Amino acid sequence: IHFQTVLMLKCQFAKFAIPALLCMIVAAVYLNHLWDISWKLRNPWESRVCACRKCLADRDPWFEELMDSSPNPFLSKDHNTSEDEFEWWRVNTDSFEPQNIQLFEVIPPTAGVVGPSPGRCRTCAVVGNSGNLNGSHYGSLIDRNDVVIRMNQGPTEGYEDDVGSKTTHRVMYPHTAVKLDNSSRLVFFVMVLNPAFMKYVHEALLKRKGRYPSTGFITVALSLQICDEVNVFGFGADKQGNWNHYFEKLKNKRLRTGQHAGNQEYKVIEELHNKQKIQLFGR
Question: How far is residue 276 from each of residues 3, 9, 26, 49, 181, measured CA to CA in Å?
Answer without folding.
Answer: 69, 60, 37, 16, 33
